Amino acid sequence: MWVGFVLAHVWLTRLGSLVLLNQSFGDVDLYRRWMEAGLTQGWWPVLDEAWVYPAGAIVPLLAPTLVAGTAAGGAYVLGWCVLVTALDALAVSALLRRPGGHVAAAWWLAFLVLLGPVAIGRLDSVVAPLSVLALLAALSSPRASAALVTAGAWVKVSPGAAIVPLALAARRPWRDVVAPAAAVCVVVVGTVVALGGGRNVASFVLEQGSRGLQIESVGATPWLVAGLWSPAVQRYLNSELVTYEIAGPGTQGMADVLGAGLVVGVLLASAVLWWCRRRDGAAFWTDDALRGDFVVRGAFLMALVLIVANKVGSPQFMTWLAPPVAVALALRRPWWGRTALVVAGIAAATQVVYPWWYLDVLYGRPAVTLLLAARNVALVVLLVVTVVHLLRPPHAADEARVGRVRVGRARPRATTEVVTGDGPAEGRSEQDPSGAVGGEPGEQVGPRAPVVDRGVG
Description:
Elements: H1 2-19, H2 21-24, H3 26-41, H4 58-62, H5 65-68, H6 75-96, H7 101-115, H8 124-136, H9 142-153, H10 163-169, H11 173-194, H12 203-206, H13 221-226, E1 234-238, E2 243-247, H14 251-280, H15 283-286, H16 288-308, H17 322-330, H18 337-356, H19 358-362, H20 366-391, H21 396-407
Antiparallel strand pairs: 1-2
């Protein structure tokens, strides 16, 4: 596994830093220039000007300069790749300590390779492994999980959405989730204010308002396809934000709707998760497997909402889907196998579009344009299926069977196998028949009937 880990990261580093430097690692050089301006001229993002990223992003951007400096060339790029590789190593090591860790780690590495160099050449590659660690610790160490999620959100906003399922799954949400998250926010905001950047601390939110409808976004799909034959649809470069956007009849209206719709989508997803917790009743608080599955599914739902309801559609956004899938596989949660395959396919399609054949999209060539449209449709379908499975009521008959086994007579020979649809599982605890979030699984003390769980598709 570790040989595969090294090979995957060496391949992505070589591909991004040598073969496709301008196409895929352009952002890394931009990071270097920002840090160079700060260290040599005293002009820092957030502290001295509005910035498109949260203030905490300065920390990982500054880290490579400690060993590589800020001179133009490959040193900073290599330092960045070493930083991402080290964080990925922490995530893989944590996954390997779980019952399905080898499958999860192999899938994680495959996902990175399928997504391509953007999997390590963006800020999202820093927060993705942090999200893995946070989800694995969700029930066993909710305070650490909340702190990690919040710290990640101050680097790139996306991990912050996982705070919703974390808070809903906590027995004492104010103490175990809200307080640690607030403490991290106080440290970050207090530091920025003390250094004179208080007026720009929220600029990463305000900077998004000037964006149009990005060409790769899910919301742009109808115009993307229509542009194959309609001259009314134009593709252009937003030079201020260095992104390609699409313009045509109704695109500005769609961009405005998505600007507000993203907030509405997060609120609706939060309402769905709250309703699911209420529906499960007392069982939610007595079954760690149920709560752990709720956190992982909830994080996956929130990530999908942030992608589908977003007027931005950058390729690195696909990394937001990977942590919940990897953790679900590590915990041997049932019915995640097909979801893992779909997400891997989405990653592969994303790499084909960017960086390899991005010009075909910009020039309106059919093959790659339709592949991008198909990927966006797959994201919408995945979101719908996730919501449907969350809303589907639990299988009462299956739960009753599990209950009868727990109070029934002991059989001559106990078994540790649980039939989940994804293969046998080992080492299940009495309260946690799936080895879900909440600590290492305990010793099996009795026979167990087959468990059929709700899935994600």
